[in-house]
Automatic annotation (TrEMBL), chain A:
Its cofactor is Mg(2+). This is Phenylalanine--tRNA ligase beta subunit. Its main location: cytoplasm. Its EC number is 6.1.1.20.
UniProtKB/TrEMBL annotation, chain B:
Transmembrane segments: none annotated. InterPro entries: aa-tRNA-synth_II (IPR006195), aa-tRNA-synth_II/BPL/LPL (IPR045864), Phe-tRNA-synth_IIc_asu (IPR004529), Phenylalanyl-tRNA_Synthase (IPR002319), PheRS_DBD1 (IPR040724), PheRS_DBD2 (IPR040586), PheRS_DBD3 (IPR040725), WH_DNA-bd_sf (IPR036390). It comes from Equus caballus (Horse). Belongs to the class-II aminoacyl-tRNA synthetase family. Phe-tRNA synthetase alpha subunit type 2 subfamily. One of its GO terms (cellular component) is cytoplasm. Keywords: Acetylation, Aminoacyl-tRNA synthetase, ATP-binding, Cytoplasm, Ligase, Magnesium, Metal-binding, Nucleotide-binding, Phosphoprotein, Protein biosynthesis. GO terms for biological process: phenylalanyl-tRNA aminoacylation. This is Phenylalanine--tRNA ligase alpha subunit. Residues 1-29 are annotated as: Disordered.
Amino acid sequence: MPTVSVKRDLLFKALGRTYTDEEFDELCFEFGLELDEITSEKEIISKEQGDKKAEGASDVVLYKIDVPANRYDLLCLEGLVRGLQVFKERIKAPLYKRVMPNGEIQKLIITEETAKIRPYAVAAVLRNIKFTKDRYDSFIELQEKLHQNICRKRALVAIGAHDLDSLSGPFTFTAKRPSDIKFKPLSKTKEYTACELMNIYKTDNHLKHYLHIIENKPLYPVIYDSNGVVLSMPPIINGNHSKITLNTRNVFIECTGTDFTKAKIVLDIIVTMFSEYCENQFTVEAAEVVFPNGKSYTFPELAYRKEMVRADLINKKVGIRETPENLAKLLTRMCLKSEVIGDGNQIEIEIPPTRADIIHACDIVEDAAIAYGYNNIQMTLPKTYTIANQFPLNKLTELLRHDMAAAGFTEALTFALCSQEDIADKLGVDISATKAVHISNPKTAEFQVARTTLLPGLLKTIAANRKMPLPLKLFEISDIVVKDSSRDVGARNYRHLCAVYYNKNPGFEIIHGLLDRIMQLLDVPPGEKKGGYVIKASEVETGGHPAAACGALPLLF
Amino acid sequence: MAAHAPGAGSGSGCSGAGRDTPSAPGAAMADGPVADVLLRRLEAADGGLDSAELAAELGVEHQAVVGAVKSLQALGEIIEAELRSTKRWELTAEGEEIAREGSHEARVFRSVPPEGLAQSELMRLPSGKVGFSKAMSNKWIRVDKSAADGPRVFRVVDSMEDDVQRRLQLVRGGQAEKLAEKERSELRKRKLLTEVTLKTYWVSKGSAFSTSVSKQEAELSPEMISSGSWRDRPFKPYNFSARGVLPDSGHLHPLLKVRTQFRQIFLEMGFTEMPTDNFIESSFWNFDALFQPQQHPARDQHDTFFLQDPAEALQLPMDYVHRVKRTHSQGGYGSQGYKYTWKLDEARKNLLRTHTTAASARALYRLARKKPFTPIKYFSIDRVFRNETLDATHLAEFHQIEGVVADHGLTLGHLMGVLREFFTKLGITQLRFKPAYNPYTEPSMEVFSYHQGLKKWVEVGNSGLFRPEMLLPMGLPENVSVIAWGLSLERQREPPVPRP
């Protein structure tokens, strides 16, 4: 869940009133947000780097607010305020408009070289915007939040914002050999080739995470203006030339990526959030993008979509009885402008470009329920009549566990994942003989394979409890995993029972006695006749360890 | 889940006895040999005597004397005992060795002949590593790095004074007070000295002092009853403040006891247990079937254990797979879909299931194929896996508890009603619900309960109505809703014991 950090006083000023921490926490809860932490820059630095470093840092109160992962429209102060103000019916949701420029439209031309690496681009212009320090910071912060979330760390989409007045269109989005790209990147004082930059950024704590996206490609994506000035080398870094500042009045925004749908959503979110500060509020100047096939599109889409949902469907899914008019009002409070039409039971809902998360009627139902207030909904019990059944394997396991404890053995709970060594070398078995399932991306050697026997877990338990008085009598009934090509996924679980008796003397008769007791409980007679059980020497060389004088017993049906 | 901890209380060494029998064996009886001697010495003593000195004189363990003191104390005013503690410096095992054979640095110095010694050879000596650096800093030896066959060590001085050995010998001789505080603390830092606290008793005559203390009986025996001798014998009173002997038994694992309780609650509510005995899942059942898009962060290598072998699921229900693919990439069933290129290869990737909802998806798919539709209530409690590095707050595997109800016309109000009953059975009555986002439920709700100890609302579970984009491709009827909730077993405490 993304966390957005906003200055409390700035937030309250924008909301037009103040709240106590408790009141604001309550408001967040109702709206589906979480006031995660109340802190300040000073507190954060002192927590991470010590009090000394924090000296002189700002002690302005910050609210850290957890935002649902699909609500990109709430990832900045502007969006949070707009959402809450509409929710509290203090303002109406703005209508976002795309307008054509007075002069020539800004053009971004995509060349076919981009196809293999980053084929999509969209663009728009924010005209006559007024930045302040706080607005500027929020703009940068929103880009970062989008990059981390919907853009999947810039792999799917990367955003570039430029001072349009420093550039001259049309712009070209192309791909070139890294050695042929040379420019002065953000916050550097001289020009570097793309190869040099990739090396420099290997040690940059922020940028090094994005290098892999293009690193091994023969061509790197790059955007030029008509004079050959580099706007950006997405998804790594922008050029310093077109950097936006507090004085920038006209912003050219480009989003490039591998996912066209997400690029359009990201552009819509940025321009809807920050067109608030344009001279003509909530209007965005269109830009034209020409694709390699010659087709040209105008962005941002800022599409409004109409959905039709029957009022009784909403009532039936939520479990409330509201009039269609009231439901329309509730939805309007969620930035979904709605009205009752047709036979008086139909609600027409307008989905604004900020709400890309609304993809089905069920999303609309949820918003109606949120505006109604989850905690105002009458709780009822469903009349669903059913007879309960236990899963037979678990039922048997439950019965056996209790009898094992009654027989004086103590239950262990050990991990189902372990190292290769645990199930092979340490037991004197070759790993290839285990039929074990192997994990491809473990973070530590503790999780290389799924266990094929319960024994290692119990032996580790003994090793960790050597200080306990002897004897140790342990058991576990749980699942092991082996490859099995007859199963759809190529592997299956088996339920095993394993018991270990650990003492100064081997005590084979004790573990043998336990086995006899288990078989008695399971109604399996001793001897080879009539499906009885026998004990044979293990084929596995155990090295004479006393604790190994037991076997793992599969529970089969 | 405690990695390798067996059930609580296993083989606890705690044993106590009802009768007031001190722990030391020699003093099991008030008139045991040590107690006898103690009383006789005390009679002759001028004022009193020290328990440690007596033990030393008698050549018995100090604990034996302490036991005798305690048993005499229990008889009333026979003796008076005052607890005293004294501190003493003792040599550690290494300290003893050095007092005997000299410090490591001295041993290194002595092993260097006038013509020098190869450093590599010196390092092989038992005292080599520690002694070398100490001898260097004492400027007793030097290293010539330019020597032909590698660095060579030479003596700098002809002789030296082994202060460490001398000081340790002083301590051994009981003259630790002759050392300066700084010297002692340096030796302690080198783990050659330790300070031990000795608790002794200063014993003196009590107001009812007597050397002839009659033996008190600890147990009533069959012989005493048959002979009637019990009438004349004094009995030791029971000591009710001592712990009883723990029963000899096995134990169930505490977390799995909580699992049993949760199973019981579900069964009481009429829920049928789903099969979950397949830790290995395909991405298809774990994610795609739940309408979780293929670029979702949970599908990242950082969060999920993928398999190298078997890397891919070989069989998938292809008709259903196509419906899922269409719903993701183009929409359908009233949905816009996610509008991206859905890849079968991605869906085939095997993994260790990240939630039991994968098993719920399989169960709902089976339900959808049974015609006509019959309402169900399902539950499961089993292991799930996340690619984490273990620490105090992260586990790579834990148990998920999941409940599912499918029926015609289920509502959010029904979900809340079921949750209220479920949590009431756990002893949690104050609940509230927060809107939330889950990829496969809509509407979604986080469940919070008021924690009396923390004095705040804490999240106890997650819930919602499964999305139509998940249910309709399975073939479930359109007017069937499925409500579901999940919580983690590891985060639960044992439900309160019901009182009749």
